[in-house]
Design a protein that fits this description.
It comes from Flavobacterium xinjiangense. This protein is of the alpha+beta class. The protein is 62% helix and 9% strand. The protein has a four-stranded antiparallel beta sheet with strand order 1-2-4-3.
Length: 176
């Protein structure tokens, strides 16, 4: 492995993952930066191999999505000037496919790192789902316990009312 390949901090990669169209995606400009190529080079490679990038692997942001994305990120006007065209968004599978069209050592190593991060985030979501299920089970148990306690108090109240209603009996035995 080449010693000049830089390991990118996980946080840097994680901050480049966006949630668009209910999918985790990375944008062409961010991927190009991570791979150490110009955005136009990445786009050319993709366009030459469009058959490898079906819609569930890669899509171009709509005008509304593009404007929404631009309004959410903090970039200077000079950087916005370079954003004339809507970015391509790559799903996890699309990012994986990029390694077959960008064949540099840095692209390969960066791609491996990105895949590991996608896997970690998927695992975190899965762990959170398990916690959410456990939480719901506990919540239902607590609700049932609350109902049971309420029922016990209701029975106690009924017993107290019956005790008040029962007339006192005449005492039997010797009178003093």
């Amino acid at each position: 492995m080449n010693d000049k390949i830089l390991i990118i901090p996980d946080d840097t990669v994680i901050n480049k993952i966006y949630f668009i169209r209910n999918q985790k995606v990375m944008l062409d400009r961010d991927l190009a930066t991570l791979y150490g190529v110009e955005t136009r080079v990445l786009k050319q490679a993709v366009r030459r191999n469009l058959n490898r990038f079906p819609e569930d692997f890669m899509f171009e942001l709509s005008k509304a999505e593009f404007e929404n994305w631009r309004s959410q990120i903090v970039i200077s006007n000079s950087e916005k000037m370079g954003l004339r065209y809507a970015p391509m968004a790559f799903t996890e599978h699309g990012v994986l496919m990029l390694s077959s069209v960008l064949n540099s050592e840095q692209a390969i190593q960066t791609n491996i790192q990105i895949m590991r991060i996608f896997t970690k985030t998927r695992q975190l979501l899965s762990d959170n789902s398990d916690l959410r299920i456990d939480f719901e089970i506990m919540k239902k148990k607590i609700e049932n316990q609350g109902k049971n306690i309420e029922l016990v108090f209701q029975y106690v109240d009924e017993l107290m009312e019956k005790k008040e209603i029962i007339p006192e009996r005449e005492k039997i035995g010797y009178k003093k």
